[in-house]
Write a structure and sequence with these properties.
It is a single chain. The protein is built from five helices and no strands. The protein is mostly helical and 135 residues long. The protein has a domain of 75 residues. The chain is rod-shaped.
Length: 135
C-alpha cells in the first residue's frame, strides 16, 4: 500500500492537537506515529486516510453549498430591500403632493408600523409632512 506520508504527517500533527479526537483520528495518530509499521498497519492507514480525504471533500462541498445558499439569500434580501426603498420613496413623494398620502404616512408613523428605534431616522420627514398638511 502506498501511503501519502506528507498528508499522513499533516493529519497526525493536526489530530494530536485535538482535545477529543475520534477513534479513527486516534488510530491515525497511533499508526502514523509508528516507526515500524506492518503491511496490515499500512492497509488500515490507507483506509483511514481515504476516509479522511472523503470527509474533507464532504466538508468542502458543504461549505461551498452554504456559501452559495448565503449568496442567493443575500441577493433576495437586496431585492426585497430595494423594493421597500422604492415603495417608501414613492409614498414620500406622493405625500408631498397629496394630503391623503401625507395622512397615510402619518398613520404609519403613529400606529407602530415604524419601529421606535427607527423613528428618529424619519422624524424630520414626518414633521415636514404633518406641518405642511396640519396633522
Amino acid at each position: 500500500m502506498r501511503i501519502d506520508t506528507e498528508y499522513l504527517e499533516s493529519l497526525v500533527r493536526r489530530f494530536e492537537g485535538f482535545n477529543k479526537p475520534t477513534d479513527a483520528q486516534q488510530l491515525i495518530v497511533t499508526l502514523g506515529s509508528k516507526q515500524d509499521r506492518t503491511a496490515d498497519d499500512d492497509k488500515k492507514l490507507a483506509v483511514l486516510l481515504r476516509a479522511e480525504k472523503k470527509a474533507e471533500e464532504l466538508a468542502d462541498a458543504r461549505a461551498k453549498t452554504r456559501k452559495m445558499l448565503d449568496s442567493v439569500k443575500g441577493e433576495e434580501r437586496k431585492k426585497r430591500t430595494r423594493r421597500q426603498i422604492i415603495w417608501g420613496s414613492a409614498l414620500l413623494t406622493a405625500a408631498q403632493d397629496e394630503p391623503h398620502f401625507a395622512r397615510l404616512a402619518s398613520l404609519l408613523f403613529d400606529d407602530g408600523y415604524i419601529a421606535e428605534k427607527d423613528k428618529d431616522a424619519v422624524r424630520a420627514d414626518y414633521e415636514a409632512l404633518t406641518t405642511s398638511y396640519g396633522e
